[in-house]
User: Fold this.
Amino acid sequence: MTDIFRAEGLGKTYPGVRANDDISFAVAAGEIHALLGENGAGKSTLVKMIYGLVRPDEGRMIFAGHPHAPADPRAARAAGVAMVFQHFSLFDALTVAENIALGMENPPPRAELSRRIAELSQGYGLPLNPARRIATLSAGERQRVEILRCLLQNPRLLIMDEPTSVLTPQEAEILFATLRQLAERGTAILYISHKLEEIRSHCDRATILRHGKVVGTVDPRAHSAPELAAMMVGAEMRVIDRSGRNPGAMVLAVAGLSTPAGRSEGVALKDVALRLHAGEILGIGGVAGNGQEELLSALSGEIATAPGTVMLESADLSALPPEARRRAGLLSAPEDRLGHAAVPEFSLTENTLLTAGSRQNLIRRGLIDHAAARNFAQSVIRAFDVRTPGPGTAAGALSGGNLQKFVIGREVLGNPRVLVVNQPTWGVDAGAAAAIRQALLDLAAQGAGVIVISQDLDELLELSDRFCALNEGRLSAPRPTEGLSVAEIGLMLGGAHGMEVAHVPA
Amino acid sequence: MMIDPIAVFVLLLGAATPILFAALGELVVERAGVLNLGVEGMMIGGALAGFAAAHATGSPALGFVAAAFAGVALSMIFAFLSLYLLSNQVATGLALTLFGLGLTAMFGKPYEGVKAPAMMAGPLGLNLMIWLGLAMVPVVWWALTRTRPGLILRAVGENHDAAHALGYPVRRVRLGAIAFGGAMAGMGGAYISIATVLQWTEGMTAGAGWIALAIVVFAQWNPWGVLAGAWLFGGVTVLQLRLQAAGVAVPVQLLSMAPYLATILVLVLISARQKFGRSAGGAAPGSLGRPFHALR
Assistant:
């Protein structure tokens, strides 16, 4: 195989962070080459340099036998590099055809372009209507638009930044079939991911990055997932430690909890009941949009409910707002990191004030104790290995996994009686996810009650002592996790309460 | 009491022209993702510069050219501060309005009580600026929806990060849009001093810039809607003048309030429809008012 792309000694430094350090690797024509690494390992910076969005401080790149130093993405596209972004670079208000035209140097006239889009999308088995507005498309369809935009330029190197993080398993399979087709036609594909199984089954080679440096280039099929993870993280992954848990007295009792159905989106909770003991982790599974967000809101205090529905030990919290519940010891971490759990524009110090202000005595007589707030933020950063220049950094500047560690850490260090988390490891790499899960287990071992709402069944089975399913706003009776089979869980998720199993259209 | 509808319509066209110019300019600026609240300041700047130039040269046409340049010059202050120094767009726009009003009050003193040269009538007895304003509506619509520069401008306004990721020069596109908005606002302001009032008075734009801003929202960022909004506003203005002249027993102050009340009412209706009705989300450009900062 001939190398289509080669990087030699690439380096890039941002204020406070050495993002890339002496990166050298090569991609051959016709191969699917994985770029593997934890959040913050420097994958995104590296591909942005290849695509001309970021200029390297040192080193050089060679593409198709020529020096490659694109001044901007248009130059990179002209050279034959195309990229599909992790966060889609699409325009919601524009049509599919307009979005694709924007990604081309010399787009043909509308009618001709629409015809070519229809033709190419059929050819790759990715049907798309060129006149649809992006806002009306699903995540998988949006990605098709991005991919078609790239394919219309006949790229020689296609970069894909975590493409499957937003796809359903079926959509991911279609994507891999397309990528395989492309590779067979000689296109080189640089595939960024931290999903190890995906890389092991679909990629020809993998270059592993850690802390901005290349660890090595390996054949992913010749290594087990734990071996790859160890290379990524730099040490053997910590094995989850479930020992030392013995449920104590009941800390949280929820009974007859219902929310009004008036809100336009989401599902109303219907007569939810649960009991949580000290030192116990209760896992709540279910397909997204079955009342998970509502349950968290009702427990955190964002939605007030009827008297007696939410009882912490002997105190009735049902009518209390979030801050009062926090003072009583009921803490929560919602799913949406940016905008719900944290204010993106605020520094980490300021974000700690939002939920930890009263419990940590960071606010005295109405005045903020900045030194104490900074210290607390610093302790969260240290305890949870949050990779950031410091507590003064804006929350929005952190990568997803690092912000999630911070958000969970803020609540865990808040010493809660009960902690409720929704999707604690969503979009987080393996190393960070393990750290977060361990922190939740440790918290329970120290005697707090923990509720984990998640769509990740493996996570729930790994963490929880008891498991229940949320389905159309109804919570099933809990079952001990030990001895629970996947088939039983499937039944709980689809057909709890003797309801009909959801029909899947053929 | 009789009000001749044709005469009212002709007057309406004149009354709508300053707002039509300013609102079309602001529409392009907002479609590029920038909220420039300095329209009033740029209009008053154009009103004085246009009046001064028309008075000095005796040519209304040269007056409008000078007004366009004055509007561009003022808009460039806003562009430099908001695009390159990343200042807050709302605060900077408000400052530009206050700056324009103060600056013209100072430099306008010598022109108080001076008469403007006469405008030449164009086809159908309407002056050329009215025709130009009407012609700009389809031109702006066509440029935004049917040309590649227009597509790029909308893309920049819709999602500046994505546009940047595709390699489009976000700041340069916005700079151009802001300059266009400045030129249009300047000419709109000059229409008030040169063609409507025929003299210079301090603060003579009297809130026309704010109405133009409101009309852009009213129009849901669509040039044809801007035309409708400008006519509605012009119509109410003319009608209240006529009613006053006809001696309707309503306090003059109430009638003068009518156009502004109409604007507020329309805006409330639109947001109510968005909140409770079908068209959720609205048509506002996705990146409107957000500062853009690219990490190299």
Residues 5-31 of chain B form the longest helix (27 residues). Chain B touches chain A through 21 residues (CB under 8 Å). Chain B has eleven helices and no strands.
